[in-house]
Structure formats: structure tokens, C-alpha cells
Amino acid sequence: MTTTDTRPAGVTGARTGPRDAARRGRRGPASWFRGGGHHSLVFLLPLLIVFAVFSWIPIGRAVLMSFQATNLVTDPTFVGLDNFQAVLADPLLWTAVKNTCYFALLALLFGYPVPLVAALLMSEVRRARGLFSALAYLPVVVPPVVAVLLWKFFYDAGPDGVFNTLLGHIGLGPLAWLQDADIAMPALVLEATWAAAGGTIIIYLAALTGVDSSLYEAAEIDGAGIWHKIWHITLPQLRGVLLITFILQIIGTAQVFLEPFLFTDGGPANSTVTVLLLIYRYAFTNSLGGDYGGATALSLMLAVVLALFSALYFRLTRSWSSS
Amino acid sequence: MKPSRIIAATTAAALAALGAACSDEPDDGRVHLAVAMDPGLEQGAIDAFNERIAQFEDANPDIDIEAQEYNWTASTFTAQLAGGTLPDVFTIPFTDGRGLIERGQIADISSLTDELPYVDDFNPNVAAAGSDAEGGLWAVPTAAYGQGLHYNRTLFEDAGLDPDAPPQTWDEIREAADAISEATGETGYAQMTNGNTGGWILTTMVYALGGRTESADGGTATIDTPQMREAVDLLRDMRWEDGSMGDDFLYDWGTVNQDFASGRIGMYISGGDVFTPLFTQNDLDPADYGLTALPLDGADSGVLGGGTLAAVSPNTEADEQAAAVEWIDFYYMEKLTDQDAAVADAEALADSGQPVGAPQLPVFDRATYEQSLEWVDEYVNVPVEQMTPYTELIFDQPLLPEPATATQEVYAVLDTVVQTALTDEGADIDALLAQAETDAQAAMDAAA
Amino acid sequence: MRPAQRTDRGLIAPTDWKRPGVRWTTRLTHTALLGALVAVGLGPMLWLAKAAVTPTQDTLRRPLALWPNGIDLANLAEAWTRIEIDKYFLNTVIIAAGAWAVQLLVATTGGYALAVLRPRYGKALSGIVLATLFVPSVVLLVPLYLTVLDPPLLGTSLLNTFWAVWLPAGANAFNVLLMQRFFANLPREVFEAARVDGAGPYRLFWSIVLPMSRPIVGVVSVFAVILSWKDFLWPMLVLPDPDLQPLSVRLPALQRFVELDVFLAALAISTLIPIALFLLFQRMFLSGAGLGGAIKGLGGG
Q1: Test the B interface: residue of A287, A291, A292 with most B CBs within 10 Å
Q2: Half-sphere exposure of C53 (CA within 13 A, CB side)
Q3: SS (H, E, C) B307-375
Q4: Which of B104, B409, B419 is the closest to A267 by Cβ?
Q5: Hey, where are the domains in chain B?
Q6: How far is CA A44 from CA A14, A55, C120, in A?
Q7: A&B contacts, CB < 8 Å
Q8: Confidence of residue C297 (pLDDT cuts 50, 70, 90)
Q9: Does B69 touch chain C (CB under 8 A)?
């Protein structure tokens, strides 16, 4: 934040003193709410209500519920760490954690270098660069549900499936795609990468235009070639944005739900059950009544891991935008 | 972007939503009741349903019926129950009745159902699914089914098989599947595997081979058995040796119906009453349809059967519960017990081109069931002769209820078994079944 | 994000561009890149457009053939009428519009109060607003659902009302942060002048701050609409009534009732509208995409 207010937060005192008021008056609009700040309150009302009801209280409730047994039918009872123990004892949890890590890893392998290379190439396009960007961004515009349902058809495991026909043209396949526990997850990641890469390309393109061209000129005077320039100038200049997209991707992929839910519902043989899918099942598809305690306990554990990444991200964006 | 426009849009949206909330329940002194209607129906089926509503409202002017799209699926029911978004009258499978009753998650309408003239005529096994420990009927059994083998007559003919002589043993099923996939390139035999249906069908096969998936007292999981092994081996032979099971091993109830109706599947196992949804939701060509009984093999073998209960939401008031039981009686039950009602129902269905006469199992006794079929004989428009291989045998097959303890959870465990068997050629079946038995036992212990 | 420095050169030196070897290599690379982008970006869309007017059996047996048995335009009509795409599309628009309005209301008023009026609890307040950025949306899934079932004070469930989607969308700390930063950077002399002219905080907000904030309002609007358009899990949970569901929720449910050719036609129609919007407002989308990436990771879910 770039406020110029140097007053420490949380200064107490019900009424604003005259000296304080004078300071505020000098500062401008602040003097309007001398009388107790009710104007600010009026403006803050929507924010306070919406955040309290739909963010702060639910977050508190999540913590509370993780220590309770509740199914909305009987009154909640405190059960200590039982929910956490039950979740940690669920054999499916480790499958889900493994699958989620696998998804994240594959998403990095597929989804990290490709947009970077594409953006590097596109940044050298002189004519009709808009066409390139638009084409690259097009999949991002497709509603994700539509993309998944369309790809689900592409992944038809028969020899007449769209992808298998394509593979057939080059003498490969047919692959079982979603019907094979070994390649179902890579297939999910492939679609997710297709759907998201355009956004990353645009981010990199924006960052590339920010690279100081005098650095290139200086390097050229020293006789540096193209690879040298990429390695020693472009990539170091992009390291901030590269790190940020990396962390964002981790945070995003750790919460992957849509693809496993719609493509395979976790199958075949639980090979695509992810942590969020498991949370969803605990809470909403348990035929014994929603296990809300287990669901919140698991989501809190996931949240602690992700909060670390978020904090890192936030630090980086701040230092990056002020550098 | 003008700020005034933002405010205008917000206000308009707010007013619109308020209006919607207010118009929810008009206060006209009538009892308002939301009742379940199958989703995704063809227009003709919707017309038939509305016709029945109109008839009911004529007879009960103080009740206002509103149709709400609903069908029971394991994956949505809990959220709907917790969210209070179920219709006032909805259907649940036999397997879920006892649990919901024990937890008080459906309304206790036993004092109302006690008044129904036929309350004591239910087949005791069927009535048990909807009754509490004291025998009070909380949920009314409306239909029962026994599993059957559905087959595509056209694909049978294309493969040089006689559609009037469907397979009678598991070996013949395997041979027919192989012949169909060889001759037509379509899936010879398909198996549901997803959303707990994998467990449902695998249990069906185990029953037909003489096994069970839990001990008689419902306390012990019995997954790792010779019969389970036999069922899995049969599937693996068809999948990996014959290659007759097609390319999709993530079918659930809806998707397998869809592919069967569009002529892509030779045979599959599902409830004997699935003709109606195949026709009303998936546009099946009746000429393609064939139905036969499952081959029973070995001592203690039997056909897995289940059924549907009509239940009432716990969020209803007394007057709504009374109206709900009226509706259940009118819509689901009268056609089974009263000639005029049966004829009226059949006429409405037939007039709008909807199926009449698809085979079911009796919820009362066989005589009452056959009587009700006779009443509507002239309206029957489904190809009953194509279903005779089933209807001739099903009453002689021992009917076995679904497993009682943690049914859906154990089914979910078995989903994994069948998915692994069908997608992993090198799977270690011994280890798979041993693990499944452990997991199933854990689920049953947790539920107990 | 750092302001982009527009340069007339990139990685390759202007002198290198003059060399035919470099020129040909880059030209070749760019043609290949364009081909790849067309195949990957446009290809699936073109295939979908074709499949939307192709009979089911053709699509199944020869998915890559061009019109083997003619065109079946009836698919589109049936998708529109039988699947009622129009209704679900309208729901999608209503949901997006409401979510947009709530987000703007919260972000502009909140950002204004925090950045311009600056009450003494402002810092603490922005602290706890920003803190929610660190809480992944997955944590909120269950408690938020229970809040919607039984919201405080209202006494009636918000389930199956659009409010259940609109209101939680407003609790987006990223929007507040963007607005607050933008407002804080507006020249304070303008506010001072307005104050001397006798303008109160409401007029200052309405007639001065908001009109000066069009760029940031535009950015937040694009994010709000895109987020809402993409959302699936949340509307699926809180709008179980099919009559209220947006396209994203309804399409997977419809899949099992609808024949393949009609279903693909429905997918095509659902894709057409966002693509048309994208082509119309391309610049806004692409310039917002950089920041959009950040939102995707943190803000909503």
C-alpha cells in the first residue's frame, strides 16, 4: 500500500482531538468526518457487511467446524482433533495428495515452458502481432466447462476418437486417454494447459515489452548472440514475473476441481481424485449426510500449505512492483 | 461507465430478486406442494405429467401442485437434503430408506400412510425398506425392480445372433459380446463403473454367481470371495482377451443409458425397469430393445432387486404432509390398486406417446401386479414380446435385496475394483480384492 | 505491474534484421508459430462449429471428415428450443451482471472510504480485508455454503436465489485492493479544491472520484464478468434449481439427456457469445489478462 498516512494503526480514543482535527484538516477531506467518522462508515457499510458475512465469519466458522461433528440435522458437538485424525487416516487422502502433486508437477512441465517460448517468439513478430495474441488467447475465452466437455469428446478412446484419428495419421495410438489410469491425469493436464496457456503468454508478452532495450544494445556491442541475450538479459529481467506465474500456478493447481470432476469423477481407479474433489465428496456426496467437519479439516490443512505460497507471492509482488 | 448506471443496475437486480422471492408462495389459501418430476424429459412426457397434475388438482381443489425436476443420484442427494432444496415429495432408492428414517431426515408420515387402504398389502420385504423399527411406514414403496440384461436386437441381428434367443449363461454373454464387437465394431458388453454404479452392478453379478458382499448380519464385508473373483475374471476376459467391452470404462447410469439408446452398446446390466427412462430421456428406438433375465449360477444365487420409495421432505408442515400423501397415493399408488386410476394413468401416458407396460416387480403381490397390468392392457405400447425372456423368468428367480450396511460406501469401494480391472491390464487382482475388503470393512465399521 | 516501456526493437538487433539469414529464419519460425496457434487455438473451435451442424453418426465415425453426409442445421434450432439455451444464457448474464454490480459497489465505496476518507481504523480494516487474500477459496466452500443455507438476520435460505452467487462474489479483496490503490494515487489537490467549493464526501465520491476512475472500474468489471462466466462449483452448489442455473452448470447435467449432435450444437452456441465479446473488446481483455492471472490464483474460486 502506498498511503501517506504515518499514524500508527489502531490509535484509540473515541473523539478526535482538536490537534488531530487540524492535522486532518490540512490533509483535506478527512476533516469531513470529524464528528465520529460516520461518513466513512456509510461508505464502508457494503464492504463490512459483505466481508463479514461472506468472508470473515465463514473463515472463523471453518476453523470452528473442523473441531466439530456436524451434519445439520443434530446439534454440532466438539470432537477435538477427531476430524483431522479421520481425514489423515483416510487411505484416499494420500492418493489425492499424490494425484494433486502429480497434476501440479505435470502442469508445470507442460504449462510453464510452452507459454514462455511462445511469448519469446511472439515478441519478435513485427506485423499482425494482435492476430497472434488473439489466437493464443482464444482458448482462455472458451467457458471452462465447455472446454472440458469438448475435450472429453476429443479424448474418446475408440480408434474413431478425434485425437486417436489424429494420432492414426502419424501412425500412433490409439490411446485410451481418460480410460487409462496412467494417462488420465496427463490428459487432464493437457486440457488444463490448453485452456490456461493463453493467459500466461499475454502476461509474459507484457513483461517482455518492459525489458530495457538498451541492455540488448549494450550486449550486442560486446558481440553477444541471440542465446546469450536470452539467457543473460531476457530471462533475468523476467525472473520476477516468472516466479509469480510459478507460484500462482501452484496455488491454482492445488485447488483443481473442474477437470477431474467433469472428465473422470476421480477415475479410473481413483487415479484422478484430487484434494478438492475429496473435500467436495466429504461435504456434498456422502450418503451418510455431509461430513462437514472432515471437509473443513482437510480444507484448512490445504489452506495452511497454500497460505505459505500466497504469502510468498504477496511479498514478491510488492517488492517487484516497488523495484 | 456511469456510476448512475451501476446504481440503477444494482437496484434493478435487487428488485428483481426480491420480486422472485415474494412470488415464491402465493397466499391463496391452498396448500402448495412441490413434487418430483424426472429431469430431461421429452415434451410428451412433460405433457403427460402435467395432465396428471391437472387431474389431481381437479379432484383436490385446495392443493396446488408444482413440478420440480429431480432424480436421485448419490452425488447430489446429500447436498439437496442439507440444503433443503428437495421437492416436498421425492423418491429415494430402497437402500437409503432405513438410514434416512433412523436419522429423521425424512418426514414421519406413518400416521398418514396408516390410513391408506392397501398399507397392509405390501410385500413385507418391500415394506421393510420404507419402515422404521416399529413398522411405521415413513416412505411408500412405489416400484420395485429386478436386475436384467438389456440388449440391442439390431446389433444382435447384425452379428448373426438370434435376438429372440438371448444368452442364458455367462459364457454365452461373453460369446455374444465378442460376436457383436467383431461384427459391428460397437461395444459388445458395457459395464457401469462410476458414481457407485460400479459397485451396484458388480454386486449384481456376485449375487447371480451365488455370492454376497456382506455377512448375513451385515457386520462383515465379504469382498474377497470366489464369486467376486469369478465376476472380475469374466469382465477381465471380455475386456483384455476378447476386447469386446468397447472403449468407455467410466460409465454411470445416465451415460450407459445414453450410449445404449444410441445403438452403441450390445448388452448391459441395469434395472429391469430402465426401458422407460431409455425411451423418455434418451429417445430409444423400441424396435432395438430386448430384455432378458440374468443367468443365475450356483447355489444361493439370486437376482439383485431394489426399488423406489416416495418420501416427504422433513421441512413440510402437517397440511403439506397430508397433501403429499394424497399425491403419493394418486400419482404412484392408485394405478397399482384401482382400475379407474390405472386406466386414467395409462391413457394419459399413451395419449402423449409415453411408454405403458414396461416390466416392473410387484410391490404388493404378483396377483395384484398382474391384475393392474390387465386393466391397462389395451394401452400397452411397449414391445412386451421383446421382453418376454425377462418376464417369463423373473418371478421364478430368488430376489435378493441390496447390501444393508454402508451400501453406497461399499459400492464406491467396488467402483475402484471394477475400474482397475477394466483399465489396468496388469492389475494384481488378489491384492485389489484384499484391499477392497479392508476398505469396505472400514466403511461398514464407520457406519455402524 | 510495471508500466510497459514501448520500444521499437526486441531481442533481435535492428542490424540483424537486415541479414537475410535472420530474416528467413524468423519468418519461417513465425509462420510455423502462426500455424501452431491456428491449429491449437482456433482448431478446436472450428471443429466444434462443424460438429454443431453435423449428424451424430458422422461425428462419431469420421470426426475429422468435412461434411461426409451433409449439414444438419436442425441441431442448432433444437439446442435452442429443447435444451433452452436461451434461458440458461439469460441466467448466466443475470448472474454475471449481479456479481459485477455487487463487486463494484463494495470495491468502489470501500476503496473510497479506505483511500480517501481514511478513518482511523482504516489501516486495520484494510489489513483484515487483505488478509483474506491469503485464505484460499477452498476453505470457504463448506462454511460459505452453510452461511447461504442459513444467513445471519435474514431468517431465510438464500439457496436457489441469485443472491447466493452475487453477494459472496462481492467479498473480493483483490478488487478492493485495486480500487484503494487507484484512489490513493489520485491527485489530492482535486479533492481539496472540491472541498473548498463545498462538496461533501458523497458528492466527492459521486462527481469526482468515480468519474476519474473509469480505467480501474473497467478493469475490475472485466475481471468480475470473466470470473462469473467461468464459475462452476459454487453456482452448482447454491443453484440446484435448473431454472436458475447458468450454462456452465446446466451443460454437464444435460449431457446425458441429449443426443450428441444437439449437445455439441449447444456447446457451440455457448462458446459463440464469449468469443464474440472477446473479439469486440479484444484490447480490454488482453490488457487485463496480466492482472487477470493474479486474480485467478487468489481471488475467487
Answers
A1: A287
A2: 9
A3: EEEEEECCCCCHHHHHHHHHHHHHHHHHHHHCHHHHHHHHHHHHHCCCCCCCCCECCCCHHHHHHHHHH
A4: B419
A5: 28-144+306-379, 146-303+392-447
A6: 18, 15, 13
A7: 85
A8: very low
A9: yes
| CATH of segment(s) B146-303+392-447 | 3.40.190.10
Interface mutation vs chain A, best among C28, C142, C153, most A CBs within 10 Å: C142
Domain C81-298, CATH among 3.30.160.250, 3.40.190.170, 1.10.3720.10, 2.40.50.140: 1.10.3720.10
Alpha carbon distance C178, C107 (integer Å):
8
Residues B39, C157: C-beta atoms closer than 8 Å:
no
In this complex, do A73 and B99 lie within 8 Å of one another by their Cβ atoms?
Answer: no
Q: Min CA distance, C120 vs chain A (Å)? A: 7
**A39 inside 8 A of chain C by CB:** yes
Which pLDDT does position B337 carry in this prediction?
87
Lowest mean pLDDT among A32-41, B8-17, B79-88, B399-408: B8-17
* Chains in contact with A, counting 3 or more C-beta pairs less than 8 Å apart as contact: B, C
CB C92 within 8 A of CB C235: no
Report percent pLDDT > 90 for chain B.
53
> What is the CATH T-level fold of the domain B28-144+306-379, as seen in this structure?
D-Maltodextrin-Binding Protein; domain 2 (3.40.190)
pLDDT given for residue A1 in this prediction: 35
Instruction: Note whether B406 contacts A: Cβ–Cβ < 8 A.
Output: yes
Q: Give A297: exposed, middle or buried? Use CB within 10 Å, 0-12, 13-18, 19+.
A: buried
Chain B residues within 8 A of C221 when measuring between CB atoms: 1
Chains contacting B (3 or more CB pairs within 8 Å): A, C
Q: Which residue has the cell 465479446?
A: C277
Q: How far is CA A54 from the centre of its chain?
A: 20
3-state secondary structure of B93: strand
Q: Could you give the ipTM of this predicted complex?
A: 0.86
Measured over all CA atoms, what is the biggest interatomic distance in chain C, rounded to whole angstroms? Answer: 76
Q: Is B246 on the interface with A (CB under 8 A)?
A: yes
The predicted pLDDT at position B240 comes to: 95
Q: Which residues contact A264 (CB under 8 A, 6 or more apart)?
A: A178, A184, A188, A271, A272, B250
| pTM > 0.80 | yes
Do residues A56 and A62 make contact, with C-beta atoms less than 8 angstroms apart?
no
Task: Please indicate whether, in this complex, the C-beta atoms of B3 and C211 are within 8 angstroms of each other.
Answer: yes
- Read off the DSSP letter of residue B166: -
